[in-house]
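Before the break, one more example. Copy the sequence into your notebook; we will annotate it together after we see the structure.
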Amino acid sequence: MTPAGDPALGAHVEQTDPIAEAQARRAPHVQFFLGDPQGYKGPEIRYAGGAEGLRADAEAAGIGLYVHAPYIVNVATTNNRIRIPSRKLLQQHLDAAASIGARGLIVHGGHVNKDDDPGVGFDNWRKAIEATDLKIPLLIENTAGGDNAMARHLDRIKGVFDAVSAADGRDQVGFCLDTCHAHAGGIALETVVDEIRAITGRIDLVHCNDSRDEFDSGADRHANVGSGRIDPALLAQVVRDAAAPVVFETPGGAEEHLADFEAIRAHL
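Here is what the structure looks like once it is written out:
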């Protein structure tokens, strides 16, 4: 799908027909939700052929699938009424993503409450990994805002991965680097790839997003490449240095995403 040496650029798409969405973007892979990103109801397969049909059709078309877990998943929190349902929901989405042959499930790092010891959140991540059947890779994503976030700042990301490294199943836990989130969260994009690799040992996926807001704003508002606050050349540097598959979670449809792809390629 992509020329030799060209980065594998895909996009986050509507979930009803991810294969058609990928083909419309001439993309080798796509990312999507399975069901409601804001609900505890559990995953659903909206593809007409069901899970087996989506897996078979994607394989036949040569298209890779990534699934994003619901935003509400927070396995780090000390609040049992959120943490326990979050673990259940995480397992359900891992199972559903595995059933369609997904390459990974992306999940946000979550947060603890204001007065909580972050160490409790780190250990809750370890417990969650040990309690979960990781049928496919689980990719923890850095987040943009919140002083109590588990994956906004580098020291917190290190705390999570140090804790997770002690868990059974550690080899199935990877990292998704979001450029908008790093910029908004106060991590310099010039050095983020080396800093994340030093902590996690790996970058499995890049979310290549421009940001509508200033550096260290804490605001999670994505923008199309060149229309936000991040130099497109710097986004391209992250893509090049990470040498991982890329997903754009930027506004618009196929036309806008194709323009984003070209904007990055122009700087590579």
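The two ends are 18 Å apart (CA to CA). The beta strands are 9-12, 29-32, 64-68, 104-108, 138-141, 173-178, 205-207, 210-211, 222-223, 246-248. Try to locate both features in your own notes.
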